Amino acid sequence: MGAANHPTRPTRPHPLVGLMAVVLLAFLSSGSAGADEGAPAGRVEKLLAVRCLECHAGHDPQGGLALDDAAAFARGGQTGPAVILGDADASLLVRAVRRQDPAVAPMPPDEPLSGDEIGLIEAWVAAGAPWPGAAPPEDSDGSPVGSAWEDPRNPVTRRWRGERIDLWSFQPLVRPTVPATVGDEGPAGAAIIDAFLNDRLAAAGIGSFPRADRRTLVRRMTFDVTGLPPTPDEVEAFVADEAPDAVERLVDRLLASPAYGEHLAVTWLDAVRYADTNGFERDELRPQIWRYRDWCIAAFNADMPYDRFLAEQLAGDELAADPPADETGAGALVATGYLRLGPFDSTAPIFQESERHRAELLAEIVSTTGSAVLGLSMTCCNCHDHKSDPLLQSDFFRIQACFQGTDAREMAIDPSPVAAEIAAHNEPIRAEIAAVTDRKEIAAKRLELLPPPPDGGAGTPEGAGERGEVQAEIDRLEARLTELAAALRSATIAEVVGEVTEIPATHLLAQGSHREPRQEVVPGVLAAFDPAALAVAPPPGGRTSGRRLALAQWLASAGNPLTARVIVNRVWQRLFGRGIVATPNDFGFRGSPPTHPELLDWLACEFRDGGSSLKSLHRAILLTDAYQRSSIAAGPSPAHQADPDNRLLWRQQPRRLGAEAIRDALLAVAGLLRGERGGPPRWPPVAEAILHANPAIIEFVKEGADGRPQGWYAQPVEETFVRSVYLVRKRSLPLPFLQPFDLPDGVNPCGRRDVTTVAPQSLNLLNDDLVVHAAAGLADRVAAAVGADVDAWPAAVVRLALGRPIEPEERTAAAELLGRHIAIHSSPPDGAAADIGGDGVAARRALVDLCRAVLNVSEFLHVD
Amino acid sequence: MAARSRSPLPPPAVPSRREILGRCALGIGGIAAALLAAGERATGEPPALLSTDPLRPLAPRPPHRAGKAKSLIVLFQYGGPSQVDLFDRKPLLETLAGQPVPESIKGISDQVGGVINHCKDSLLCPPWAWRQYGQSGLWVSDRMPATAEHADRLCVVRSMHSDSSNHAPATYQMNTGSILGGKPSLGSWLTYGLGSENANLPGYVMLFEVGGLGGSANWSNAFLPAAYQGTRFRHDGPALANLEPPPGFAPVQRSTLDLTQAFNRGHLAARPGQADLEGRIATYELAYRMQAEAADVGDLSEESAETLALYGVDDPHRPTASYGRMCLLARRLVERGVRVVQLYNAVDKYGWDGHDKSHDYHERNSRQTDGPTAALLADLSRRGLLDETLVVWGGEFGRTPMEQGNGGRNHNPYGFTVWLAGGGVNGGRVIGATDEIGLRAVEDRQHVRDLHATILAAFGLDHERLVFPHDGRDERLTGVLGAARPIAGVLG
After folding, report:
1. ipTM for the complex?
2. A183, A386, B70, B208: which has the highest count of C-beta atoms within 10 A?
3. Would you call B37 an interface residue with chain A, using a CB distance cutoff of 8 Å?
4. pTM summary value
């Protein structure tokens, strides 16, 4: 689609808007109370707009009085109705603008209306205050109502009178023309992306930076794709690889690494505010929810098509049989854990707040789906029509109706062959358990019936006589029972979602309050696209209604341009530090418009039409010149002057590693990172002073908390040296090492992490136990590589930690540190224990110090 | 990332009248929408990228208008202290002790849920005497005699109400405005709005033995930048997490850091103008200075014996020792320019939460807290700090006048008391009232949002203008919904 009919900026109205305005005006003018400027109503409309609406409009107007729509106006404000129809003198509005009644606040507060203006309002009220353009068009012919752009009867069109629907992200997704300048070298996708970018640079007269050097590139790519540093060998191999396809092979190797899925999962888990615990007062562990995290990682590594990825999360139980037929079906069930990720207050029933909390949870899943999948800020619509975007309050509840029947369940998810196997395995064991239990009970009865030992047991040898025989029999049977219980195979339990049979009606809630239900709504999607009821059909098996499946299908449908744009933008953001849309969770008017709208749409079309493959998308972007550009400016350049924020991507964007990548990199270069992947969350040790300040943990430690899993289950620290994505995310106690590095709170969906530089980061990197471990581990690797040759240590440390040769001045400074520290450690200051073992120990300690210093450097935390 | 200093306080965006007139033909609804959207388009910059100076996120910033308060101390009374036992005297409870709730009050529905019908239909009378204090003649029970001596400094709001009868949601609401958590806390908003006066300490400090129910969400920065989160400052052991070098590394700390910084300077030199790298270097020095500064705050040896006795921390076995120490540290922190200090009273997970034997809980908690609270007010006053330090006392809700269990009282979000002092607050004043048994706020009702708006106003901040754009909304402490207003009469 060319630019002429494809608006790229929200400030440019959609061509239909002009038409709509004309249609509406014509309509309004034909009514009895048209917006004719000459008529009193029209003049009052303008007067109110100019002098009153600044404060008296929208959901939260001053004094509770809104003058921007007929219904709100009729309701009046906190002090009562604004007008008494036909009685100007009694009307608060008139008395307020007359400014003569001490009991009524003078309005407008800043500058009085003129006498003429007051007269106009008086006359208008006396005439019964005809509301300008209040009568809506009728649905006269009963035909289906179309989208907001083609049908004036669409409720979004009516609500905003033809405005608002020019939102760029709502425009149909149409494949843009590929620039004529596209080169014919290299992979086609990358060349097209570069052409889109380079056209803009050329138009702006900005020259781009050259490609980054090999060493920088391999480090950047490895961190971006896997969240881990390249090993020194990987760096050297890539630097030495002169084959023309070296970069392609690197990209393919990285995308094939299981670390790709682990790292991409962090992005997704942020967007859906994943945590392992409930939050609120008790903050219990959700013991099986990690399966959802592992499912995400596996789905990314298997390059599951994105539409399927979404469908399984929203409606996996509607896609899979129960029990599932295979592992894919089991995965689909696990994926519905998505619907249970939100904070959950298990104490709500105690205070009869369950009903309220249920309403909150339902609202929350709509908001999260809105931001994660659609990139829309829908939270506002829980209470009122969106203030700037073409979203209705009823949209919120139509989508909520899709989730209305969800029911949290803990269930076995083994595929049926496995379930059958387990059943077959367990059947004889259970039969034997039953038989042995019977025999044990009989024996116990016998024991009761036997006469007690004649002397009360004293003097009788233990186990002698009939009593002894029976007791021995009981002991044998008990031992057997223990054996049998251990032999039972247990089912795999997951925290999933099913659906209740009788789905309660969904009502629009006034102000989002569950105590104020209004009209019933049926499942639907965003009315701007389709105001009709969602076509819902129960999937085979008939266990569920099909509502969520229908929603998932709409999300991935051609009629919805948002889903593809949003996910493509998330991937772009991962690889450039900033999205084409800088506000990944807000594609509305309040968000940032796309810097390269045609490129975004081209990527979205490629993605949608090419099987929704996230790996292909990554691959195309990673192979661009733009991605591979240097980020380093030696000094001020003309590009800096022209585009200081690098919106046009004349260079790569340097960036700091995220919280997980920092910790993983520390462990990796120290040789401490364990290869175990997945499974229940690991619990690193946390200082007792922190644990014992957490009320939920105190309750667990001191009183057992009735067995609720609300403790901190610390493991030996070495067992927690896995990738950070596998560490526990406890909502009331974020991991102290990760938290200062802008770790999201696990409560708010997070589309883009902050990157801040604060003192607790430095305190952690200098002083935390983890860094001491890492420094010691790195020292071990240095010693293993170059032995006790102190002069060789600096270069080895820099090579292993930073993946590059050491600079001469760095070598000098590092050697000085070693000399200084060997002296200090050999003769510790008063009070410190002297080293036993002489220079070797002092040198080793100095090496650990050097490693600790290098693990703290900016270069370790930042990527060029 | 380029360093960009932007005020967090955008002026209200209003299109020109000509623009409005130009849009008039589209109808009032269209104009309203245009008014709302105009600000974003006019700036030409996505709101989510607005930020404070990333290199100096805590640099002091001026408020919207002059405000007397410069620092905030929140004395959070976890568990829900009983208004009818402390600051809200109800003679009718004495008359009706043990009798059913009057019909006139009973008829009102239990909207929040689970409060009234979990109580007996029997009123529980506070067993302590009440006296009037100060010029103002404020009634205070014998559980708060020392605090009562400051009656003429207190502005007592007896008509608070909130939205949950459950600890964690109510605590979240008192701290963040939202019963769901996940929003920035009051202290985060204040430090975001104003920065802090001491660059070597966190701007927003938490003091507690046991933090509020619901954990870190109560002092979270949520979607505000990380510099504005509450930092726990311990009063037993190293003040801040990882403040001190790991065991055995102290003698080489500076020397190690020097090498790091030498590498960092070389790295920066090759990347001129990269602000986050400059920030990294500065932050290491700040972390190093913080070690000395934080240790200095916690060192009470320079306090006089009289002061230590005043706060009740002269003997570690006194019931006041823990809370008193937190109060004294609060003074020392605000003295050094820390913007916000919040402490939690509780030394266990119960605090004032007396579902059974409520009187025992109130005996114990008042013994622990009354003296030090009074000491803090007196000490701030004699040092000339009270005028610019706003002190706020209150819990997440109050308690029922009806009995629950065996001499207990249930949670009560319908009517409860908080008080404010210092920081420009009108002392010796009572605002609002509960019904005749102290169950519901009936006169001059004030929501938690109003309290938050009041606290911000004391600092010269307009709660409607202290906004942060997040995912398409201009978020604010008092919520994008619902009307909040500073409580009339609190500020001079």
Report:
1. 0.82
2. A386
3. yes
4. 0.84
